């Protein structure tokens, strides 16, 4: 539930302190967990993560997903698009900061134009005029900035309610939350409504992806983890690994063996 | 002597003619770079999806037929499956290997049928190929551009005697083979190759029986 990460980004200062201490506590506990012999090197805390992941799934199934599904059924598409655009614009502001921190002039300028155009012509972000103008969105958060400058991701961590993350990205959450404008709204009721709305919006946008995940994965936990880590690496490097295949060719006979299996010579229809 | 020479020359001409006929398609295929091939294939697939109502409705059997005729000839699916299964592939019998391929393909089609049915007015932008002319293993990068967003879609391709074949693909930064390798490895270590086949088969059966809203 990457979803709730967004909600956490705009809590009030005292809640932020609570959040930070909670995250620190979780990480401290994880440090003490013994590594199992079959541990995946990128996921040394797997048993713990699995527990948290199923806890998150439970809450998702019980509360978040039904609300998001209802939201999708009840609100007209145009309104939902407006909501997504509005929050996307706010996120673009923080992306601008991070693009600058990563010394990316082209992306920074483009993001600046995005925010400028969408806030003015796009009616405070409700209409995504910038995308019509082919101004690409370059989403960046502080974890990506740290990664860009060489900080390794660290172990995979599933945060309670917040979902997949890494050690580095978890520690960046407080910084991200400072960068989110919704958190600066003074009126508590309004701020909480905005947070809830954004949460529902993000979850609704992820409903299709969730269905795809259920269909594609044999084991939802490891699929989510591997996909998340790959994607995160890709976002930071902006490019996937280059021509690989240092991988062994299992479809060909092992080196030194003359026999060719009949299945190899069969060509796909 | 004369008869033999005439026969010989006729035979030579005929052979040259046949060789010429056979080589023309091969030459065309060889001249097609991998990025050009992907561009043709992507445009072809998109146009066909937009024109086909059944595919848009998510009809799985129609999509499977569509994938079999249009897409699979350009894929080295054996290599894709073998890479995902890993070292256990060599321990599998030919029958197990065939079943693995069939079930894996079924699962991929069923999974991505939903994505295909969402295609409305997307276009594909093939990035310039970053590879030497003599390379036989390349990555072709493309973007599927819809309203407001661009989805990264990359292909790993190898050059074979029958032209360029896809053996891995990447959506949104996630390489398929690498992801499924972990999935399959877990299943095989718990239940063996037959267990993996059974799990895939069972998911495919229950998946097609379900109607997802």
Briefly say what this structure is.
The complex is a heterodimer of chains A (269) and B (213). In chain A, 63% of the residues lie in helices and 3% in strands. Chain A has helices at residues 3-8, 13-32, 46-74, 77-101, 105-120, 129-132, 142-148, 167-178, 188-205, 207-216, 220-237, 262-265, and strands at residues 156-159, 163-166.
Topology of this protein?
The complex is a heterodimer of chains A (269) and B (213).
Chain A lengths: L2 H6 L4 H20 L13 H29 L2 H25 L3 H16 L8 H4 L9 H7 L7 E4 L3 E4 H12 L9 H18 L1 H10 L3 H18 L24 H4 L4
Antiparallel strand pairs in A: 1-2
Helix pairs in contact in A: 2-8, 3-9, 4-5, 4-9, 7-8, 7-11
Chain B lengths: L1 H30 L2 H18 L1 H5 L2 H12 L5 H9 L8 H23 L6 E4 L10 E9 L4 E11 L2 E9 L2 E2 H34 L4
Antiparallel strand pairs in B: 1-2, 2-3, 3-4, 4-5
**Total DSSP E strands of chain A:** 2
The shape of chain B is: globular
Q: Beta-sheet strand percentage of chain A?
A: under 5%
Query: In DSSP terms, counting alpha (H) and pi (I) runs of 4 or more, how many helices of chain A?
Result: 12
The H/E string of chain B reads HHHHHHEEEEEH
Radius of gyration of chain A, in angstroms, nearest whole number: 21 Å
Order of helices and strands of chain A: HHHHHHHEEHHHHH
Number of helices of chain B: 7
Share of helical residues of chain A: 55-70%
Overall structural class of chain B, as computed from helix and strand content, comes to: alpha+beta
Distance between the termini of chain B: 80 Å
Beta-strand percent range of chain B: 15-25%
């Amino acid at each position: 539930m990457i979803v709730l990460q967004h909600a956490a980004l705009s809590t009030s200062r005292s809640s932020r302190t609570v959040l930070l201490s909670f995250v620190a506590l979780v990480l401290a506990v994880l440090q003490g967990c013994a590594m199992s012999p079959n541990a995946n090197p990128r996921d040394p805390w797997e048993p713990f993560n699995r527990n948290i992941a199923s806890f998150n799934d439970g809450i998702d199934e019980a509360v978040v997903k039904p609300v998001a599904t209802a939201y999708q059924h009840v609100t007209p598409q145009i309104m939902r698009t407006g909501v997504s655009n509005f929050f996307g614009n706010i996120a673009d502001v923080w992306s601008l900061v991070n693009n600058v921190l990563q010394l990316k002039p082209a992306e920074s300028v483009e993001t600046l134009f995005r925010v400028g155009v969408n806030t003015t012509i796009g009616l405070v972000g409700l209409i995504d005029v910038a995308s019509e103008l082919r101004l690409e969105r370059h989403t960046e958060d502080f974890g990506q900035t740290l990664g860009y400058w060489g900080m390794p991701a660290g172990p995979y961590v599933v945060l309670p309610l917040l979902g997949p993350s890494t050690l580095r990205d978890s520690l960046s959450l407080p910084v991200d939350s400072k960068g989110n404008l919704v958190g600066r709204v003074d009126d508590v009721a309004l701020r909480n409504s905005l947070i809830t709305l954004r949460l529902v919006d993000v979850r609704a946008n992820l409903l299709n992806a969730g269905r795809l995940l259920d269909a594609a994965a044999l084991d939802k936990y490891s699929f989510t983890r591997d996909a998340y880590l790959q994607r995160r690496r890709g976002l930071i490097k902006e490019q996937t690994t280059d021509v690989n295949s240092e991988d062994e060719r299992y479809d060909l006979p092992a080196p030194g063996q003359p026999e060719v299996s009949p299945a190899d010579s069969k060509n796909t229809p | 002597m004369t008869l033999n020479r005439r026969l010989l020359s006729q035979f030579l001409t005929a052979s040259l003619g046949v060789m010429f006929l056979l080589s023309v398609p091969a030459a065309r295929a060889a001249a097609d770079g991998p990025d050009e091939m992907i561009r043709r294939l992507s445009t072809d697939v998109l146009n066909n999806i937009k024109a086909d109502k059944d595919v848009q409705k998510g009809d799985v059997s129609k999509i499977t037929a569509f994938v079999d005729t249009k897409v699979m000839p350009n894929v080295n699916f054996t290599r894709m499956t073998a890479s995902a299964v890993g070292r256990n592939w060599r321990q599998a019998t030919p029958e197990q290997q065939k079943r693995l391929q069939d079930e894996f393909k079924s699962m991929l089609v069923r999974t991505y049928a939903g994505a295909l049915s969402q295609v409305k007015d997307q276009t594909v932008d093939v990035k310039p190929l970053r590879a030497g002319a003599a390379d036989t293993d390349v990555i072709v990068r493309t973007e599927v551009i819809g309203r407001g967003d661009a989805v990264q879609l990359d292909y790993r391709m190898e050059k074979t005697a029958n032209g360029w074949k896809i053996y891995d693909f990447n959506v949104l930064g996630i390489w398929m083979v690498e992801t499924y390798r972990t999935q399959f490895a877990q299943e095989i270590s718990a239940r063996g190759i037959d267990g993996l086949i059974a799990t895939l088969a069972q998911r495919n059966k229950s998946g097609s029986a379900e109607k997802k809203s």
